[in-house]
TrEMBL record:
Keywords: Membrane, Transmembrane, Transmembrane helix
Keyword Membrane in record: yes
GO molecular-function terms, A-Z: ATPase-coupled intramembrane lipid transporter activity; nucleotide binding
Main location: membrane
Stated name of the protein: Phospholipid-transporting ATPase
Species classification: Eukaryota, Sar, Stramenopiles, Ochrophyta, Chrysophyceae
Pfam families linked: Cation_ATPase
GO biological process: phospholipid translocation
Subcellular localization: Membrane
SUPFAM superfamilies (UniProt xref): HAD-like, Metal cation-transporting ATPase, ATP-binding domain N
Amino acid sequence: VNVGQAYLMTTDEQMYHEALDVACCVRASNLVQELGMVSNIFTDKTGTLTCNEMRLVKYVLKGKIFDMPAAPIAVGESVNINTDSISSVAPVPLEEMGQESATSGPTLTTTTTTPSQIRLGGALATGRATTPRRASSKPGRVRLQRANSDVSSSSEEDEEKAGDRTGKGESESGKGKASPARKLVFPASPTGSSAAASSNDHSKELFNFLRCLMTCHTVVRESNGTYRAESPDELALVQGATGGFDCQLVERGSREMTVCIDGQNYTYTILAVNAFNADRKRMSVLLKDNATGEYLLLCKGADNIMLPLCNVTPDEDVSLNESLIELSNMGLRTLVVAQRVISSAEAQAWLKMYRSSMVATSNRDELIAAAGAQIELKMEVVGVTAIEDKLQDEVPEVISDLTKAGIIVWMLTGDK
């Protein structure tokens, strides 16, 4: 019986690994009997079922879920992606980014959307949203750059005119300068109603969100332009802002950092870093804007920890939780991003306590955590990030086969 089972397994085409050109090899005669005794499998998720390669794929602003731009598109280039025609036009300044488009395009849901046309750089998108709350920015790198360009309508006449306008130049990542840009379109509601907030409000929210992603971390830029990070999550956030919005981490030292957003460099003095750990489930940085002298607390962390520390209205709380549940149901890792502007007096008083805890000889960790908790309060939610950790090859198929065999698979994870 064992020999017959071994023969059937070695000749089973479904057990043949085409990529490695390897068939099933039976090295133990009692293998099948032992496998037949398995009733439960307990597995970790990160690095076991997944590749441990994080990628920022979605984000939330003003209660709407947006897709991250999927791939860079050169200025002046026209491409076809999923039958949606994308053609570039002239760059649009950050101040105009509040103009909302008609609706969004394809999203990660089972709802079928009609092909839509998007003209990057300020044109409107035509299509259909999958849910009333959902919005989607189209594939393509979104670059923010000041330029003289008007938001055009979605009419065919304007589309022809838009096709003749292109941006100029390419980015020089080593110098930290953003290249001429396309505009991130904030879709309007599916009913076509206008946005309640002004365009300045939209651009400010987007700027604050990008600033948090580019400064609230411990990522270091290497001389060859690559990033080095303590965790894959931090690296994914910085790479997402860099690749999707063409921001740049120009330079980071122990006391100062320079980032490029919207084609302009911003330099901040790093006053304190409250590190992430399993107990705090958040990290924060206290910065001083060298240009304005403003003190900024930027923080990111788990939603169940962050939301109680933020000033959130009941309506905002409902909207945020709906977005978080929706993203979690997609299997994405979510982080809430928040900030607070701090007075000079409060900053200086807190820094004394922080520096005292850093040099403490006893209970140092507890004192540092207590110092962080003293300042990480009354923050404003800037947005939510959603990171994908891609499944390893054939994981769904394997789990399906195990389920068919009556084996229960238990996944252990700290994520939702």
